[in-house]
Request: fold
Amino acid sequence: MREHMSDGGFKLMRLAMKAVDRIHPHVPQKAASFGIQSGMTVVDYGCGPGRYTMEFAGLVGEGGRVLAVDLVALALEETKGKALTLGYGNVTTYLAVGYDSGIPDKTADRVLAIDMFHFVQEPAAFLKELWRIAKDDGKLILSGGHQSRATIKRNLAKSDLWAIADERRGLIVCRKAVH
Reply:
């Protein structure tokens, strides 16, 4: 399965992210643009080393929750360690198995898939899982990373589960489609 990254691949990705963050520290500003509020439950799907997870934990506050999901156990260990170091008791990690996150139905106010959608081999199955874990009024925020906006929009349309509510530079915000 292409979605699964080796520990070595994860370490290289983490190193690249650190370099980018030093040159262009954009994560706090980008996270603040997602409409996350105190008390929300937010899913950081494909959390990697937890760059966004920690920002989300601060935004939702003690009354909110951040559920960090990844396919790489090492990523979750690092995310959990950062949360403990920073004193965020509102972060829970989930090791995904295929497209099953293990998160209960209709849990999330926001589901974020930031810079990871290009790894997904079966977009319909992935989008179905995100639909399942989002509340009825929940939103999905996608950032394509290394994938064109047209490809993302095609995959959203094929899934028939998500309707585009807003498009911004680098982001597509979706709501659940009415069936």
